[in-house]
TrEMBL record:
Main EC class the enzyme belongs to: ligase
Sequence similarity: Belongs to the class-II aminoacyl-tRNA synthetase family. Phe-tRNA synthetase alpha subunit type 2 subfamily.
A Pfam family per the record: PheRS_DBD3
InterPro entries: aa-tRNA-synth_II (IPR006195), aa-tRNA-synth_II/BPL/LPL (IPR045864), Phe-tRNA-synth_IIc_asu (IPR004529), Phenylalanyl-tRNA_Synthase (IPR002319), PheRS_DBD1 (IPR040724), PheRS_DBD3 (IPR040725)
Protein name per UniProt: phenylalanine--tRNA ligase
Superkingdom of the source species: Eukaryota
Annotated transmembrane regions: none
EC number(s) stated in the UniProt entry for this protein: 6.1.1.20
Keyword field contains Mitochondrion: no
Organism phylogeny: Eukaryota, Viridiplantae, Streptophyta, Embryophyta, Tracheophyta
Cross-referenced SUPFAM superfamilies: Class II aaRS and biotin synthetases
Residue span, Aminoacyl-transfer RNA synthetases class-II family profile domain: 220-470
UniProt keyword Ligase present: yes
Organism of provenance: Stylosanthes scabra
Alphabetical list of Gene3D superfamilies matching this protein: 1.10.10.2320, 1.10.10.2330, 3.30.1370.240, Bira Bifunctional Protein, Domain 2 (3.30.930.10)
Length: 488
């Protein structure tokens, strides 16, 4: 109703000068008019300008007198024509009415406050105060002197009145069109969309609040491991190449070309680009030699080493591919001892089950120095794993093509009450290090483990697919706690 009134009025009139008057004339609540004006203004049906007015409203006391009459009037009426003793008059009236009434009536010269009696001085009086209060209550203006007097008596207080003056806006129409928010299949098919008016985008509206990023448990554990390595003085190796050549992933590591791991059943080979373009040729030659005929007191594997096999690109199957590149680079400069680490993703063509995925993360550490022994490896492993909260370690002889001796690492799990395998380690073979050009007395001790294993233990996850991959519950990523390595 308010909306029709406004739009209808503007059809034939230039302006609504004052929404307050407009509302009063039509007997519509002003608040309702204001809400409609705001909404029409938002859609530019109308242009609205603020108007402010100082008005007066009655205090509670003021309101009371509109019903009872002013105290002076009440007092005057309580006095009989023959007069009345003051104390009797007092009994007839409220304490405050009596007090104020006496003062005001005397001021108005309505009454005589005699020693014996209080008497009327005039026959009739008019309750002007009540009249004025009623006028204000009805929104009518009164003279400045009257305002001053009523204000002094705290019967009225000022109030700012807010309203609008309204004119047609750029989108003015006598009736508001229903704007549509979505283009639907139905109105698209029927052609109705041509007639429809679509709601404009509100670019300044705030979107739904974005949740902050959440760290995946693997990232949290990775950050802690990185910190442990850094505290132990290790440098991080650059691991930003998932694609690697077979050469760096296998051949440089003295892994024979017939090794089952080099089969496509175990490794993902690339279709495009299927081969690597560049390898350090003199080093490639020395690697071929060591595989075919040996050297450095090794007999080699005595087979026909094929360059094409080494050129094949693959998704790296372990981060030791990165270690081999780094050690080769190290060998190109005058020797300096190094401690390196990496934590990154590797890929294996494995059947996926509760504990295996085709991609996972490896943690790898290595120390390269003159005269290192297996004891150094055991010592470093104790140091490293104690930072992870694993203080009881056991080692078991193992086999890797690139390490000798090799050891599997076991740790006693207090919760599971058993020894669990936690990693693999060894001393890189001379067949790997010497062709690179590292000095004869330089040894490299190294170890590797998965990032998933400790993370699953720490977070109590027993199916790797709940930790990583497309089936992970996003709630886990949002709500997972901070689990600290070493204090569980
Ligand atoms: N590369 C080994 C693996 O993938 C781990 C390892 C790293 C073993 C370094 C020995 C030395 O399991």
């Amino acid at each position: 109703m308010a909306e029709e009134a406004i739009l209808g009025y503007l059809q034939n009139n230039e302006e609504i000068k004052d929404s307050g008057e407009f509302a009063a004339e039509r007997n519509i609540d002003h608040n309702e008019i204001v809400n409609v004006i705001k909404s029409l203004h938002g859609f530019r049906y109308v242009d609205a300008e603020d108007i402010k007015r100082e008005t007066w409203v009655l205090t509670d006391e003021g309101k009371t007198y509109t019903a009872t009459g002013s105290p002076e009037f009440q007092l005057f009426n309580a006095i009989p024509p023959e007069g009345i003793p003051k104390d009797e008059l007092q009994k007839k009236l409220d304490a405050s009415v009596f007090k104020i009434g006496c003062a005001q009536a005397a001021k108005n010269k309505w009454v005589e406050m005699g020693k014996q009696l209080v008497t009327r001085k005039v026959q009739n009086v008019e309750d002007k105060v009540k009249g004025l209060l009623l006028q204000i209550q009805q929104g009518q203006g009164i003279g400045p002197d009257d305002i001053k007097a009523l204000k002094a008596r705290k019967l009225i207080v000022p109030q700012t009145w807010k309203g609008y003056s309204v004119r047609k806006g750029p989108n003015y129409a006598p009736k508001r069109k229903q704007v549509v928010t979505d283009l639907t299949r139905e109105n698209f098919q029927s052609g109705e969309w041509k007639e429809l008016e679509f709601k404009e985008y509100n670019y300044s509206a705030k979107g739904a609040p974005l949740e902050g990023g959440h760290l995946h448990p693997l990232l949290k554990v990775r950050a802690q491991l990185k910190q442990i390595f850094l505290c132990m003085g290790f440098e991080e190796m650059p691991t930003n190449n998932f694609v690697e050549s077979s050469f760096w992933n296998f051949d440089a590591l003295f892994q024979p070309q017939q090794h089952p791991a080099r089969d496509s059943h175990d490794t993902f080979f690339l279709d495009a680009p299927s081969t690597t373009k560049r390898l350090p040729e003199d080093y490639v030659e020395r690697v071929k030699q060591i595989h075919e005929i040996g050297g450095y007191e090794s007999r080699g594997y005595a087979y026909d080493w094929k360059r094409e096999e080494a050129n094949k690109n693959l998704l790296r199957t372990h981060t030791t591919a990165v270690s081999s590149r780094m050690l080769y680079q190290l060998a190109q400069k005058p020797f300096a001892p190094k401690k390196y680490f990496s934590i990154d993703r590797v890929f294996r063509n494995e059947a996926v089950d509760r504990t295996h995925l085709a991609e996972f993360h490896q943690i790898e550490g290595l120390v390269c120095d003159r005269g290192l022994t297996l004891c150094d490896l055991i010592g470093v492993l104790h140091d490293f794993f104690s930072h992870l909260g694993m203080t009881k370690l056991k080692f078991k002889p193992a086999y890797n093509p690139y390490t000798e001796p090799s050891m599997e690492i076991f740790s006693y799990h207090e919760g599971f009450k058993k020894w669990v395998e936690v990693g693999n380690s060894g001393m890189f073979r001379p067949e790997m290090l010497r062709p690179m050009g590292l000095p004869d007395d330089v040894q490299v001790i190294a170890w590797g483990l998965s990032l998933e294993r400790p993370t699953m233990i720490l977070y109590g996850i027993d199916n790797i697919r709940d930790l990583f991959g497309p089936k992970v519950d996003l709630g886990l990523i949002k709500k997972n706690p901070i689990c600290r390595l070493g204090i569980n």
